[in-house]
Amino acid sequence: LGLAVYASSLCVVSGAAFLYHDYCVIGAGPAGLQAAYFLQRAGRDYVVFERSHAPGSFFALYPRHRKLISINKQYTGKSNSEFNLRHDWNSLLSHDRRLLFRHYSRDFFPDADTMVHYLEDFASLLKLQVQYNTAIIHVTLEKNEQAWNGHYFLLTDQDRKNYKCSSLLVAAGMWVPNVVNFPGSEYVEGYETVSINPEDFAGQTVLILGRGNSAFETAENILGVTNFIHMVSRSRVRLSWATHYVGDLRAINNGLLDTYQLKSLDGLLEGDLEDLAIVKDKKGKLHITLRFYLENRNISAGIDSITLPQDELDNFATRAPYDRVIRCLGWKFDFSIYNRSLKMMPGKGNIKKYPQIKPSYESRGTRGLFILGTASHSVDFRKSAGGFIHGFRYTTRAVHRLLENRHHGVPWPSTVYPITQLTNSIIKRVNEASGLYQMFSVLADIILLRENATAFEYLEEYPIGVLAELEMQTGRKARDGLFVIIMEYGRNFSGADKDVFYYNRAVGEAQHAWQSNFLHPVIYYYKHLPTEREMKLRPPDWPLPRPDAIHHIVEDFLTDWTAPNAHILPLRRFLENCLSTDLRNFFAESCFLFAFTHQKLPPFCQQGYLRMQGLVGSRELRHHALQAGLLQDYTHTDFSGDRPPDSHDGSQEQLMRDHAIPVRPLQHLVNAKDE
């Protein structure tokens, strides 16, 4: 039987044997392991190829100085595991509580070696199908109408072994160093190889090319031993607290900003690196000049024959020679292994280091090829957290759900509720959901209205970039309108040049919620599913097209959107206006009176009171309702509750004694006033 199963998994094409799997995953880093977890839980046929002998090989080398900048918050004051993931930027998603990163490190900024250990445990404890020491060196296509996507993916490893799969998930990360070529660039040391021993820089003058976290991490390591450090890049420094983008400069690495602004010799400069040139003198010192000074000059003739900027401008900023120049320019995607038939093209502009993909994370050139993890960051570059573990663990799950619907007919997970639960469902998610919180403006909860808005279907964490394709991508229908719930920062609050600490920066009143600056929930209402054209023509910097109605829940200092008057009441009234219905909870007395005075009962009465659902009244509950003004005491009769609840004599007095009070939890009584 085993031989038969093995033989069935082999394909022969032009004399070459291909080992077949439905899904091939390239890379056993965090994104590859996360994808493997979901595939395994779904019982799918898959394999993960990893070039190293263990998972997470990138973290075995980087960051060079071994301190991660992803936070590991041990305590939040809450026991809700979903909420706590908002402040755990290292854990992957799984059902195993042992695989929370806080069990591996108590450091707020953990060591990179701990991440390697964590990923090894994640792969082994969950028994993920990872094939180590397998470097995929070539990927091409084979057209076949019987294949899921009209073609198979053919992969070849370093030992010339061949593999075939129907869907390819690329989670290989970004590991090719960005290199700028200019005259003298051969004298530059790379971040990937430069010494991390501060003593090697004692008494030296250093120039660092770049202005990201790797550049500042390198500077932080040698700050106390160098003569001075200069840092040059084409763009100004971007502080993460100003841009609200975790990939910009983090406070843990910004010591050089202090020494620059407090005039302790170190400094930052702006300039295009491609315009630079480096000349080495006889003493081994490195002089910075400009490329145009070297035009038609023989650089090998020596520094004496070359004009330097300080020869014309005696206070030129970089006139002092340097002992070392270090390149810290980040990484880019490796396109070299992909055949032209896959049409894997780099992006344009500031996302040229990433492959071109759709908002669904599928390649623009090849159906069935999905990019996961850091390399998928072009979808939300400088906007959200999709390039980091605490972001792409959710986008990887979203891709898996798209694939489950496309290839296996498994619709996007959803839950159906009566319309009376609409407000509660939204409030619960905006206060707990980690995917909405981490992937703000990218992933959204979708509420599909059903049965003439008497019920709704709740879908979690759907990529809003493909909202127009929702029915096709999820297998769910949006016939009666929908709500889209996302998290957003204020429109003009984030930016490298923004002062995010200005006086009166926070909004506290519900009527000004639309002016909220900090991260807060926003609810979009559409009577019809937006079209592709509407998505393309949406206003600049808007994540979605103009809705039929929009509601901002006012920002909250504690990110706790449960205040009855500031958060819940305005939301409920917005939903009621959109649906032209009453979403309040009522006591049975009110439902009874409505039945005699209104042609149509509120949904709560229809779905609760008329079905004899709710809580049986008691003396304490009625007393509380009377004291709070939630009920009128028509009879002045003592509510003793002595008679059994199934005894009814038809009188108003008895009805009021024995009525069921269809409320949700007791704390919601404050919202049940019939104002």
TrEMBL record:
It holds the Pfam family Pyr_redox_3. GO terms for cellular component: endoplasmic reticulum lumen. Residues 1-15 form the signal peptide. Coiled coil: none annotated. The keyword Glycoprotein applies. InterPro entries: Auxin_biosynth/cation_transpt (IPR050982), FAD/NAD-bd_sf (IPR036188). Keywords: Endoplasmic reticulum, FAD, Flavoprotein, Glycoprotein, Oxidoreductase, Signal. One of its GO terms (biological process) is ERAD pathway. GO terms for molecular function: flavin adenine dinucleotide binding; monooxygenase activity. It comes from the Eukaryota. Its cofactor is FAD. Probable flavoprotein which may function in endoplasmic reticulum associated degradation (ERAD). May bind non-native proteins in the endoplasmic reticulum and target them to the ubiquitination machinery for subsequent degradation. Belongs to the FOXRED2 family. Interacts with SEL1L. May interact with OS9 and DNAJC10. Interacts with TXNDC16. PANTHER family: FAD-DEPENDENT OXIDOREDUCTASE DOMAIN-CONTAINING PROTEIN 2, FLAVIN-BINDING MONOOXYGENASE-LIKE PROTEIN (AFU_ORTHOLOGUE AFUA_4G09220). This is FAD-dependent oxidoreductase domain-containing protein 2. It comes from Myiagra hebetior. The gene is Foxred2.
